[in-house]
Amino acid sequence: MRKLLLLLWLALPVCAFSQGFQVNLEGEKQIGMGHTGTGLLTDGASVFFNPGAVAMLPENYVQAGISPLVFQSVFNPSGSNVQYHTLNKIAPPFTFYGVWGPKSSWWKFGFGVYTPFGGLTDWGDNWQGKYVLESLNLKAIYFQPTLSIKLADFVSIGGGFVYNRGSVDLTQAIPLANQAGQDGQAELKGTGHGYGWNAGIYFKTESGVTVGITHRSGVSTTINNGNAIFTVPTALQSYFPQPNTFKSTIPLPAVNSVGIGFYPSPKWTLALDMNITSWNVYKTLEFDYKYTTPDLQNTVSPRNYNDAFTFRAGAQYKSSPRTAWRFGGGFATTAVGDSYVTPEAPDANRVYFTGGFGYLISKHLDLDASFEFEHLLSRTSTNIQYQLSGTYESNIYIPGVSLSYHW
């Protein structure tokens, strides 16, 4: 029993890197237009959406934004009318971009700092799945220098190096009560890093339609010396070596995107994007522990994720030279099979709707705001490892704002 509990606990943290924690909040203009941007020329966020388009930007940029995210999920155990809800916690994905190059030059340099993966989930300590998860705080921050080159007036290419710095803090209850009847407690804390790259091409057709194609590589993120902290009855402490550390490598997936921009009039911009996220690389989760006991052995847990697809559409209408209105939406498939759904990221196929506006405060300063609502379709599953069985239904609310200085 002790060995099973340890295996389940130590298999938890990296499950969170599923479609549910791929937050995709990398630019307020693009969020407002349904997350489209691969085939558009917008602002400094092109460093992320299409590094090939950066050289085509008519101005240099410094911009920063934040998109506070509230994840709300409800779990209904099988055969019961009881409902458990996550607590309302706010995760703060953020972005920073800089783009610079000589005016009318054939090149531009860009730099981006953004959070493509992250989340904050808190089920509390009094729900049916507390021995699987109580809370999870996850952050993955990417740093990306980029070089973009204009090959001709109608086509440009670009690419960048990516460094990822991630952190995780996870807690769960252990069904080993002390004399006061209190459950044991486990906390997993660690940081890791990984490396990758991205590249893109952007071109304008003779009809005025713009097209973008990008590839963001997978990033194998390694956690070294993660801390496993246990609070258990004194008589059982020998089964939970303290201090203890673990090592694990997480294969974050590659993403391929195609985007198209249409311009039916000077006031209207329409966009379509499609993304394929190669989650099929995530077959198993493996942990190597510094200290083992007969009850705590190195573990290999199946994940068997599938590739995930996202379809996006958006529009922008410029009602005046200073004001733009945006709206959009999309549909995303889940990467997680029915037997692998977990409370860290109770993922499912989802639909989302976005809106936003932009306002030119001055000749060189833009204010952009957005709002997104995501609905994860109801999903009933029994997890193959934890045997936690029931129905999840989740909603996500994301306001956002950014400022851009351009010259």
UniProtKB/TrEMBL annotation:
Pfam families membership: Toluene_X
Main location: membrane
Annotated keywords: Cell outer membrane, Membrane, Signal, Transmembrane, Transmembrane beta strand
Topology of the protein relative to the lipid bilayer: Multi-pass membrane protein
InterPro entries, alphabetized: OMPP1/FadL/TodX
Subcellular location field: Cell outer membrane
Domain of life: Bacteria
Residues annotated as signal peptide: 1-18
GO molecular function: long-chain fatty acid transporting porin activity
SUPFAM superfamilies, per the entry: Porins
GO cellular component term, pick one: cell outer membrane
Family: Belongs to the OmpP1/FadL family.
Protein name: Long-chain fatty acid transport protein
Species of origin: Mucilaginibacter frigoritolerans
High-level lineage: Bacteria, Pseudomonadati, Bacteroidota, Sphingobacteriia, Sphingobacteriales
